[in-house]
Structures are given as structure tokens and as C-alpha cells.
């Protein structure tokens, strides 16, 4: 199991078997969470020959507009925290929404998660980042390079970064499912990211076992009372579906990140985002181009693919 750097070892998580009656998190992670303090628009870039300020030329983009109809609801809402994407969601996503971001490698799923947490961390709220892919140090470095001061958030007790080996997590999934919601409440976190659920799904060879084991996990995260984002690799056969075709049916909102190639083979490959669904929220159903810059993901809301 990967572990955080020495100065942050109070945020380690012990995934050893809990059959001896001791809590899976008693030694380190639980105390780190319970002792933590309570929770308390970018401009369009020049694309160089393709973007004229109003839209893209015939190579693949054109201008578009959104439906300005408001979604009337008393459900508290929150912005995602990504320029342009929030404009595609009229009024924001309902709080405590469980969402998944689906995409192939290199489409910015991890960056999406970093910005998603930074949006509330920068306002003094608490959050938890659970990673099955990267180390604690790599997550902090990636975030700070994009202007998200994760090192300061951790030092201030606002952010817990938990790096887990996916095999260890699969072996102790039942213990984690039963205890993680309580620990999130103790930490008073308002948002959580799990990157990525695909690695967890891969631990189960049989489809029926995979479905049964994964089914309860999103439900327990929702019971924790946080707005949660999961990342998932896209299917090899269908960029609009997750690798195992399960998680999108268990979540309230689905965002798809994908590569889009124009009809002209000499044009560069572009990135595009689509919102497949958000329960209890109006949203644009258009596919919008985006870019990953030194400052993170920025969605170009004034441009459409066609």
C-alpha cells in the first residue's frame, strides 16, 4: 500500500484486516479526521487560426447558446468549480450529488477532481481525496502546479489525501464502506473524490461479483452527506460508457470527457465534454470543447461541436 510523505503520515490509512475487532482506521486516519477543524470566469483563449472569438471555423466548431430556463427547486445547489462547465448547469448541481467523470487516459479526469475539491477548499471547507492511482506527493504536486495549493490545505487541516493500493482496498472494501461515511462526517467534509473506481472494479473478475460489490459503495458515500465525484475509465468500445458499464447507473450525474477528431486528418485532436445526466437539475445537452492548461480545465461555453 502506498503511503503519504513522512510529514503527512497522520493521514495514512491502514487497510489491514479488521477481524481482530479493531477499527480499520483507528490508528491513523480516524484520528486525523476527527481532530481536523470543522468545515467551515476565465477568458476564452486564442486558438490560433481556429477560434475567431465567436466560434470555430468549419474544421469542427461553431457557436452555440444555452437554454436560460431556470430549474425551480428548493434543493441546495453548488457549482462544480470549472470555468464554462458551471455555465452548462443551470443553478448548479444539487448538494450531496454523487457524480462520475468518465474518460480515456489523458482527458483530464484527475485534474477535474482536483479543481472540484479546490472550489470548496479555497472557501475554507474541508474535503477528502481518495486515490487508488497516485501517491500523496504526486497529488499534491499536480494540484499545486495548477494553482491549487493542496500543500497548504493539508497543512491547515482542511484536506485529507488518502492513497490506497486498489488490491488492499478491494480486500477490505466492506470495512471501508462501513466506516468511511462516519469518518467523513467526523472530518466535516463537504466534498470527496475517489480516483478511480475503475481500478476497484478490476479487482473482481466475475461480472456478478463486481456488480454486487460495487453496488453498495456509492450508496454509502451518499449516506456520508458529501458531494462526491468518482472517476472512471471509458469503455474500449464506447467512449460514452464506463469500462464495466456499472457506475453510471449508480450515480446521480455523469460527465463524459472524450477526444474528438475532425474530418480533416490534419487538424489537431480536440477535447470535448458532455453532461449525460444530472438528477434534479437542468443542464445543457450540447457537447462543448475544453482544454487542459497550466491552470486546469477550462470549458469553452461559447463554442459547439458539429
From TrEMBL:
Residues 17-29 have a biased composition (Acidic residues). Gene3D superfamilies: P-loop containing nucleotide triphosphate hydrolases (3.40.50.300). InterPro entries: Circ_KaiC_arc, KaiC-like_dom, KaiC_dom, P-loop_NTPase. Residues 47-62 have a biased composition (Gly residues). Coiled coil: none annotated. It comes from the Archaea. Residues 1-79 are annotated as: Disordered. The keyword Nucleotide-binding applies. Residues 76-306 form the KaiC domain. GO terms for molecular function: ATP binding. Keywords: ATP-binding, Nucleotide-binding. The keyword GTP-binding does not apply. It holds the Pfam family ATPase. PANTHER family: UPF0273 PROTEIN TM_0370. This is KaiC domain-containing protein.
Amino acid at each position: 500500500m502506498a503511503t503519504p510523505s513522512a510529514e503527512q503520515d497522520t493521514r495514512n490509512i491502514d487497510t489491514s484486516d479488521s477481524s481482530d475487532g479493531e477499527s480499520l482506521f483507528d490508528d491513523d486516519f480516524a484520528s486525523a479526521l476527527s481532530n481536523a477543524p470543522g468545515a467551515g470566469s476565465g477568458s476564452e483563449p486564442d486558438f490560433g487560426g481556429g477560434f475567431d472569438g465567436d466560434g470555430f471555423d468549419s474544421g469542427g466548431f461553431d457557436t452555440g447558446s444555452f437554454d436560460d430556463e431556470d430549474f425551480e427547486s428548493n434543493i441546495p445547489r453548488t457549482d462544480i468549480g470549472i470555468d464554462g462547465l458551471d455555465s452548462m448547469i443551470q443553478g448548479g448541481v444539487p448538494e450531496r450529488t454523487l457524480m462520475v467523470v468518465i474518460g480515456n487516459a489523458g482527458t483530464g479526469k484527475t485534474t477535474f477532481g482536483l479543481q472540484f475539491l479546490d472550489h470548496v477548499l479555497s472557501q475554507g471547507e474541508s474535503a477528502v481525496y481518495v486515490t487508488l492511482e497516485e501517491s500523496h506527493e504526486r497529488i499534491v504536486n499536480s494540484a499545486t502546479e495548477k494553482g491549487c495549493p493542496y500543500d497548504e490545505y493539508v497543512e491547515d487541516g482542511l484536506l485529507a489525501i488518502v492513497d490506497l493500493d486498489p488490491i488492499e482496498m478491494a480486500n477490505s472494501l466492506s470495512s471501508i464502506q462501513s466506516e468511511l461515511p462516519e469518518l467523513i462526517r467526523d472530518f466535516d467534509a463537504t466534498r470527496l473524490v475517489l480516483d478511480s473506481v475503475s481500478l476497484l472494479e478490476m479487482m473482481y473478475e466475475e461480472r456478478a461479483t463486481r456488480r454486487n460489490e460495487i453496488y453498495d459503495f456509492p450508496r454509502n458515500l451518499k449516506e456520508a452527506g458529501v458531494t462526491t465525484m468518482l472517476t472512471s475509465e471509458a469503455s474500449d468500445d464506447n467512449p460514452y460508457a464506463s469500462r464495466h458499464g456499472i457506475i453510471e447507473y449508480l450515480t446521480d450525474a455523469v460527465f463524459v470527457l472524450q477526444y474528438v477528431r475532425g474530418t480533416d486528418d490534419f487538424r489537431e485532436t480536440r477535447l470535448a465534454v458532455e453532461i449525460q445526466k444530472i438528477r434534479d437539475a437542468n443542464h445543457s445537452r450540447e457537447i462543448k470543447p475544453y482544454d487542459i492548461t497550466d491552470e486546469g480545465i477550462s470549458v469553452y461555453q461559447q463554442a459547439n461541436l458539429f
